Each structure stands twice: as structure tokens, then as C-alpha cells.
Amino acid sequence: MKENKAKILLFELYVVLFWLSIHISSPFISKYAEQIGAGSFLVGLTVALYSIGQISLRIPAGIFADRKNMRKETILLGALIAAVSFALLWLMPTIPILIIARTMQGISAASTVCAQAMYVGFYPKDEAFQASGKLVAVNQLGTASAYLFAALVGNAVSIKGIFILSTIFGICSFISLAVVKDDKKKKEPVTGQDLKKAFQSPRLLLVALTCAVIELVEAGAVWTYVPFVATDMGGSPFWLSMLQFAFVIPCFLANKIFYKKLIRTFSPTGMLLVFTCTESVLCMLLPHTRNLFILFVVLFIMGTVHWTSFQLLSGLAITSFPEKMHACAMGVFQATYALGMLVGPIVAGAVRSVSSMTVVFITLGLMTLLAPTFVLLVKRLEKKSI
Q: What is the pTM of this model?
């Protein structure tokens, strides 16, 4: 058990360092693209390439890792690709290199489908659900650390300096994972029939679609238009980073305080119904906040319900299938919810082009009500299977 605790700690260190590497530059990447001569279309493409890489490669990465029993090797390759991509941005500041690097970063993030499966394997089978939620929290701790770091050093370090830091963190994440001993268990091979079950599972599809809907809010509202609301209130670059931090950091706190206790008392689907409805209401309230502090508080509460829902959905997805298919199941789950990350900003932008900022948030909030509808369908499937 002590050996497993050491593995878990080293693996969590890899996760935090990896997301630090990926996200430190996130608040500055679109501005950097503009500075090196990218027009509006290319700036948008630069941001979108990261999501496109994940949508297209998460399922193949999961299938490959499960069929070849190469989860750790796939994750290591992802960490190496991330480090190389930021080194390229540091050494060659051109638009073609930026496009290549952002594509590489999407590919590296796609490898994390195997991270979820490998991490859950360190725990007993009856703890798989909670282990999956814990890793989601560690992921977001890394992301929150990146936003906080960006807020603190963004004005003091050049964008090239940020790329150097990203490269260093990427190399450190590779090293921390490389030293984790991977006890490759002999397991049944994943067959074509197994893959068919994953792709045709109504429960997995509904869980993944629920997550895609709540990701609409994160990408369309929090990433895309909250910065505009904050800027209208006089928010500085520091505040823009801190508002992102306010939404992300509750993920870690939710896992430690709420998730572990609530899961013992209430059913996952029951909690999801409450939390997804709450997130819908909070999204519609965002443009009505009167100052930056209130906006910070609303985003913190919204982040708490969002990431608790996300952890519950992740647990439902990975426990839908036996251990040998965990990477494949997470590939389907993560590729599907990444569609929400892509569609959210597009819907928000389309609404904003013909209406007010308030209507953008109301539209996204109303769309979020699809999530409890999908949860009710999951609940119905669970009752039929009893």
C-alpha cells in the first residue's frame, strides 16, 4: 500500500506539472498570435486547434492504449509533445509554428484519457468512482495553479519567458511520470465487440452528453464572455486571471469537502439534477453582477457546482465498463464533452453578433437545462437495469 501511495503522489505531481505547462500561456496566447501578425480568423483558429486535436484523438488514443496495454507510454509521449511544442514557440515565433504548436498541444492533452485509466488502476475496484473524481480535482488544481501563476508573473515576464517556463514544466512532468513504476497486469485483450459496446452504450453516451452541455457554459460563458463583463467593470489583466482562478479552484475544494461526503449520502444522479439546474441559474445571473468582487464570488459558487458535477460524471463514465476498457471509455467520454468546449464559444459568438451580452448568458443558461434532462434519462436506465 505504501508503494501505491508513492505512485499516486508522483502521478499527481505529473498531472499538476503537465497542466501548468499547458495552461500558463492560455491567458496570453490569442494576444501573442495577434502580435506576430495573425488576423482575426487565425487568432480564432489558434484557440480552436487545441480543442480540435482533443476531439479527434481522444478516442483513438484510448483504443490504442487499451488494445496494446501501453497507457503509461501514451501519457509520456503526450508530456514530451507538450514540452517540444512550447520549445518551438520559444525558438521560432512565426504563425506556421504557432499553428503546429497548438495542434501538438491538443494532441498532448488527448493523451490524458490514459491518465484517468492508469490512475484509477492504483486504487481497489470499489474505490474507482471516487478515484476518478479525485483525479479531476488534481487536474483542475494544476489548471488553477497555472492561472494563478500567470496572474502573478504575467506583467513581469515576456511571452517568450512564459514559453520557457511551459517547456520546463513539461519536461518535469515527463520525468515525474517516468519514475512511476507501471505494473503491467496481464489482462484480457480488448476485442472489437468490447469497443462496439463502448460506442453503443446509451448510459455512457448520455453521461458524456451531460458533460458536454455543462462544458458549453465553461467555454462559452466563463472562457469567452466573462472577460468582457469584467473588462466593462474596469478589470485589469490580474483580475481576468483571478476570475478564471475563481471558477477552477473550487474543483479541488469540492472534492475534498463536498464530493466525498455527499457521495455517501445521495445518489450521483440526484446530485447532478440539483447541481446542473443551479449552474444554469448562475450562468444567467453573471451579467447582472455589479462589481468584480461579486462576479468573483458568483464564479466561485458556479465553479463548485460545475466541478462537483464534472467529477460525478467522470466517475459514472469510468465505472460503466471493466478495467480493461477504462481508457477507451474515457476516450469516448472526453471526446464527447470536448464538443461542448468547441460549440460553446461558437454559439455564444453567434448570439452576441445579433444581440446583447445579457442574452448570450441567458441562452447558454437555458441550453444548460438539457443537462438535467439527460440525467433523468440516465436515472431511468439505472432503474431498468435493477
A: 0.81
